[in-house]
Design brief:
By secondary structure, the protein is an all-alpha fold. It has helices spanning 2-21, 25-45, 49-73. Helix 1 (2-21) packs antiparallel against helix 2 (25-45) and helix 2 runs antiparallel to helix 3. The mean pLDDT is 89.
Length: 84
Amino acid sequence: MQTFTYILMIFLVVCAVAVSLSKKLLNSILIFMSYSLVMSIIWMLLESPDLAITEAAVGAGVTSILFFVTLKKIKAIGGEDEKK
């Protein structure tokens, strides 16, 4: 079990660096979602299910949805650029 925890911790560091170095906003959001999901798994391993549920709901759920809506509003994802 200890090895699994170390692998998750390394994955968290890799995700944090990848978000910083990512050029595309959509990729950054997806990496952030995976960071939040792994963090919720770590909270479960630390026997704190209330924090795990909160991290999964807020970190991976609500925050990511808000980021996607914001990218849609600024037209960074979604529709094609209309040229006239």
